[in-house]
Design goal:
The protein is mostly beta strands. It has one domain (about 5-85): Maltose phosphorylase, domain 3, CATH 2.60.420. Helices cover about 0% and strands about 60% of the residues. The protein has strands spanning about 5-15, 20-25, 30-35, 45, 55-60, 60-65, 70-75, 80-85. Strands 1-2-3-8-5 form a 5-stranded antiparallel beta sheet, with no helix packed on it. A hairpin with a 6-residue loop joins strand 6 (about 60-65) and strand 7 (about 70-75). It is globular, with a radius of gyration of 13 Å.
């Protein structure tokens, strides 16, 4: 996302026979990303950018991989992650 954007969302984006919502919010200390699908069962894969000095908190979904290239995967209704700046 452009650094000037603090919030953005795409809603009801048609992908095959599914619809996807993507919500993004940034504060001074945190980036919150949520991807929701209308038809659970599809695999959602989220690869958030993990910058130096940032830790990741997976709110919904399963963490696969580690280090600088973590991937969050879910076949449920949504994937949600928070990227939090270390103090």
């Amino acid at each position: 996302m452009p650094r000037k954007w603090n919030e953005a969302s795409l809603e009801a984006v048609q992908v095959g026979d599914n619809k996807i919502d993507v919500h993004y919010q940034r504060t001074e200390t945190e980036v919150h990303i949520r991807v929701k699908q209308l038809t659970p069962g599809w695999k959602i894969i989220l690869e958030p950018p993990l910058e130096e000095g940032t830790r990741m908190e997976v709110v919904q979904g399963a963490l696969k991989g580690a280090g600088k290239a973590p991937i969050i995967v879910s076949t449920g209704e949504e994937v949600e992650v928070k990227l939090i700046k270390n103090k």
